[in-house]
Amino acid sequence: MTAVRVRDLRVRLDGTVIVDGVDLDVARGEWVTVIGPNGAGKSTALRAIGGLLPFTGTVELDGTPVDRLHRRERARTIATVSQSPTVPPGMLVFDYALLGRTPYIAPLGRESAADLAAVEEVLGSLDVARFAGRRLETLSGGERQRVFLARALAQGAGILLLDEPTSALDIGHQQEVLELIDRLRGERSLTVLMTMHDLTTAGEYADRMVLLAEGAVAAAGTAREVLTEDNLAKHYRVRVRVIEGDHGPLVVPVRS
Ligand code: ADP
Ligand code: MG
């Protein structure tokens, strides 16, 4: 079963074509990582797939066109963590994670015991339960990133869209968050579609990768197929050496 099916996706912002005919499939339970230089259209493509931007073409989530899902239904299907989520000033970590339950709470209604339990469970599994009563803005980047993930997981959606979830993190917290996503993917049978800049790490975790350049798919396949010296030289204008590692290619920039 295909969790995310994208055909001929086009997005225009202020009259400029930003995403220019993208095809992409993510099977249920699969982890696909989109890479590409700054400005390639990664965030824009993800926002369109999440139903957050108008587009032309087809985006189907679990077989249903995203534009036919109502807001609440969509939120139960797909959870997005944007590149730099807004941190509402003064909001407590618990209340922030509880926002993920909005699609289950009746308009003007109150959260149920089940909603509270779901949030507690998710905060626990992300190891941030001890911050529940803290204001979100007082957390470190790594802690905060885990809370953003907690909000998305509390949503109970089967598809996770993560835009550079590790960019703000040091190498240790990067690894921790990626391991965590992978563990949760197994435990909760999640489908993961994300963007990431660190190419070696991206290749280690993704089942498949998509290289986006100037709004179009320049390469797609396994890390070995996508992370080639030629592809990277051409689309990132970078000189790299690609070395065979234990878990896939290692991308090493080399100076001239
Ligand atoms: P990426 O995530 O790959 O770095 P983005 O999707 O954020 O790229 O942006 C792709 C391009 O779209 C960039 O050139 C950016 O300047 C442009 N862009 C983003 N938002 C707008 C907008 N509202 N109007 C016009 N251009 C935009
Ligand atoms: Mg981006």
From TrEMBL:
The keyword ATP-binding applies. Residues 4-239 form the ABC transporter domain. The keyword Nucleotide-binding applies. Keywords: ATP-binding, Nucleotide-binding, Translocase, Transport. InterPro entries: AAA+_ATPase (IPR003593), ABC_transporter-like_ATP-bd (IPR003439), ABC_transporter-like_CS (IPR017871), P-loop_NTPase (IPR027417). This is ABC transporter ATP-binding protein. Coiled coil: none annotated. Gene3D superfamilies: P-loop containing nucleotide triphosphate hydrolases. It comes from the Bacteria. One of its GO terms (molecular function) is ATP binding.
